[in-house]
From TrEMBL:
It catalyses: [phosphate](n) + ATP = [phosphate](n+1) + ADP. This is Polyphosphate kinase. The keyword ATP-binding applies. GO terms for biological process: polyphosphate biosynthetic process. Catalyzes the reversible transfer of the terminal phosphate of ATP to form a long-chain polyphosphate (polyP). CDD domains: PLDc_PaPPK1_C1_like, PLDc_PaPPK1_C2_like. InterPro entries: PLipase_D/transphosphatidylase, PP_kinase, PP_kinase_C_1, PP_kinase_middle, PP_kinase_middle_dom_sf, PPK_C_dom2, PPK_N_dom, PPK_N_dom_sf. The active site is at H464. Keywords: ATP-binding, Kinase, Magnesium, Metal-binding, Nucleotide-binding, Phosphoprotein, Transferase. One of its GO terms (molecular function) is polyphosphate kinase activity. Its cofactor is Mg(2+). Residues 616-646 form the PLD phosphodiesterase domain.
Length: 722
């Protein structure tokens, strides 16, 4: 237990220097080994995704989907996180302070755990999910399992649809080893010249534009599929006439695809980004996946030509690249999926009469509106808000941030319509949103052509906050209609991402957003806001002050408590503040989807901290920060995770929720999430996550997302009765 009097008196009124010095004095007394490794914690998150795929209680096609999500997640982890660690080693940069180990040791630990997980992932497919699909009439088979009639029909398909687009590339003195694109699936082929007896090597890329799972015309009454690489492998003789095909093996390469731009050294961000996206294709290799039957001759050639180490080789049972299981989503078998859920219109936005459209502005004028997606509709709230603003003659201006959306999005179209009708429209587009850069450039230019003022934020920072501001003239007075959310303005992901959004006409929020947009589009430097906490200047420090206020309440015998819901909990300063609060007796509850570097339940350090994780049909994406505040709760929602990049290198915003009913709603949600009767994963002090999904007697625990769906439905029915 540390001494607390260093931070007691008057800290809430202390200036920043005094505050920093006081915090540093206390942090020096915390144990050194107090953080969990962030990379291993991320792999533990993906292991939780895998556990859903392994769970026979999940609908069978959803299990296949979780296997595909696991594969996609792991690809991005290697392309970004592992690539970043390797870049640090090459350039001599230090690792983050919470690692505390040699970079090569970190990479070795990642490699060992990733190998274990990929083997477990492959086993989950071959031993669990594939047989479960077969029992339900959906078979993914090998060529050897086909009868003669099926092979004949597939051979016809191969000749008509596949053969014309294949491009075998020989490797010999006249043909150097070809470039292998990242995440492409390939066949390494060895052939022998029938005349000379000379052995040759060839590489064949599996065409990514063709269906990965080829449906087999069958009269068996089942849906049968053959992996495309299996079809190609059994027709190699057609590709190499006059040659004897000796062997073939699938392989797949992952490259460093992170993008780094020195913004202060470039005059045109868009041009620099486009050039960097071209460079991304040629990033260095960081992972080689091969089938477990690959011979040493072929492997040695790949290792030599790709300049990759054996530690970076992942030998797996086929098939490789289980992202292909996303193709199964096209199968019309609702009995093998989660029951359908249609998002409900939030009660405040329900029209007064069944056949009329709701007046979104009138609803917001009556009271602040908190919406919860996808339980409540994005289309009849956020989208309707912007579409009504675009058409309303009293609306003078619309300002909005856009991080990830789509060019055909009704959100983008609403901004175009508003600009074409003569309104002032500002779109702050973050073109550096990872892996969406090219798409964002395309639709940003589309907005510019329509007359929208498009800006790209501040140099050196990503604009990640989710903000929309509508300026409307009412009786000669300008009124601010504000929306602050936790998720992107993306109608597609709004159906699968769990997020929150607050609509308000509160003048303080409106003025805060006006000043923030001015800062983002111009040169204003605004340091203080009323109802917002904004990164990178003040969000971390504001949260630490709120956390420490709870610590002081606990020491004074007042009511205290902290609840935080985030995607990732990594930032050392925030974690240390939570440790200090725990040591003072503050109950701390952390609800995290992904990475957590905080160690809960450590005696003398964090015995008052509980960490839970919930995964399911929806991706838990909202961020909530709640403080008991001596019985006068303060609750914030917004875009920021507790990571260095969010707090130091991004523009993030949290807004304080002020309505008592909405605070109670978020409190109830947290109560359910942290309840021992709810299905969740519990984090131990050793970094191990344990799933709790049934009672001791085997009865299923409550599913938070299903419960929330039922609650929203009940709320809607209650409104209809009134």
């Amino acid at each position: 237990m540390i001494e607390h009097d260093v931070l007691d008196a008057g800290l809430g009124d202390a200036d920043d220097d005094d505050f920093d010095e006081a915090v540093e004095a206390v942090d020096a007394q915390l144990p050194e080994n107090r953080y969990l490794d962030r990379e291993l914690s991320w792999l533990a998150f993906n292991r939780r995704v895998l556990e859903l795929a392994e769970d026979p209680a999940q609908p069978t096609l959803e299990r296949a989907n979780f296997l595909a999500i696991f594969a996609s997640n792991l690809d991005e982890f290697f392309m970004v996180r592992v690539a970043g660690l390797q870049r640090r080693i090459v350039t001599g940069l230090a690792l983050p302070t919470n690692v505390g180990r040699a970079p090569l040791d970190v990479l070795a630990d990642i490699s060992a755990e990733a190998h274990r997980l990929q083997l477990r992932h492959a086993a989950a497919w071959t031993e669990q999910v594939r047989p479960a699909l077969a029992e339900s009439g959906i078979e993914v088979v090998s060529w050897e399992e086909l009868d003669d009639a099926e092979r004949e029909r597939l051979s016809e398909y191969f000749q008509a649809q596949v053969f014309p687009v294949l491009m075998p590339l020989a490797v010999d003195p006249a043909h150097p080893f070809p470039y292998i694109s990242g995440l492409s699936l390939n066949l390494a082929i060895r052939v022998r010249n029938a005349r000379s007896g000379r052995q040759e090597f060839a590489r064949l890329k599996v065409p990514p534009m063709l269906p990965r799972l080829v449906q087999i015309p069958s009269a068996r009454g089942t849906a049968r599929y053959l992996p495309l690489e299996g079809l190609i492998a059994n027709h190699l003789g057609d590709l190499f006439p006059g040659m004897e095909v000796l062997d073939h093996h699938a392989f797949r390469l992952t490259r460093n695809e992170d993008v780094t731009i020195e913004e202060d050294e470039t005059e045109n961000l868009i041009q620099a980004l486009e050039a960097e996206l071209l460079r991304r294709r040629f990033g260095p290799p960081i992972r080689l996946e091969i089938t477990d039957d690959m011979d040493d001759v072929t492997l040695d050639l790949l290792l030599s030509e790709l300049d990759i180490t054996e530690q970076e080789v992942y030998r797996l049972p086929g098939p490789l690249d289980l992202r292909g299981l996303f193709d199964l989503s096209r199968i019309d078998r609702p009995d093998l999926r989660y029951p359908p859920h249609v998002p409900k219109t939030a009660v405040a936005f329900q029209p007064p009469e069944h056949n009329r459209r709701a007046d979104v502005f009138a609803a917001i004028r009556r009271a602040d509106v908190l919406v919860h997606h996808p339980y409540e509709s994005f289309a009849t709230s956020v989208q309707a808000f912007l579409e009504q603003a675009a058409k309303d003659p009293h609306v003078l201006a619309i300002k909005q941030t856009l991080y990830r959306t789509s060019g055909d999005s009704p959100i983008v179209q609403a901004l175009i319509d508003a600009a074409e009708s003569g309104k002032q429209v500002l779109a702050l587009v973050e073109v550096k949103a990872r892996f969406d850069e090219a798409a964002n450039i395309v639709w940003a230019r589309k907005l510019e052509k329509a007359g929208v003022h498009v800006v790209y934020g501040l140099v050196g920072l990503k604009t990640h906050c989710k903000l929309a501001l509508v300026i409307r003239e009412e009786d000669g007075v300008l009124r601010h209609y504000s929306h602050v959310g936790t998720g992107n303005y993306n109608p597609k992901t709004s159906r699968i991402y769990e997020d929150l959004g607050l609509f308000t006409v509160d003048n303080e929020v409106g003025r805060d957003l006006t000043r923030l947009f001015n800062e983002l589009s111009g040169y204003a430097i605004e340091k203080k806001f009323k109802r917002l906490l904004v990164a990178p200047l003040h969000l971390r420090k504001g949260l630490i002050r709120l956390i420490d206020k709870e610590r002081r309440h606990a020491l004074a015998g007042k009511r205290a408590g902290i609840r935080i819901k985030v995607n990732s909990m990594v930032d050392e300063q925030i974690i240390d503040a939570l440790y200090r609060a725990s040591q003072a007796g503050v109950p701390v509850e952390v609800w995290v989807r992904g990475i957590c570097s905080l160690k809960p339940g450590v005696p003398g350090l964090s015995e008052n901290i509980t960490v839970r994780s919930i995964l399911g049909r929806y991706l838990e994406h909202s961020r909530i920060f709640a403080f008991d505040n001596g019985g006068d709760p303060q609750v914030y929602i917004g875009s920021a995770d507790m990571m260095h990049r969010n707090l130091d290198r991004r523009v993030e915003a949290l807004v304080r929720v002020s309505a008592a009913g909405q605070i109670a709603e978020l409190t109830t949600l947290f109560d359910l999430a942290m309840s021992p009767g709810t299905t969740s994963w519990h984090l131990g002090p050793d970094g191990e996550w344990t799933r709790h999904s049934t009672t001791d007697s085997g009865k299923a625990l409550v599913d938070l997302q299903e419960k929330t769906m039922a609650t929203v439905q009940r709320r809607r029915r209650a409104r209809a009765v009134r």
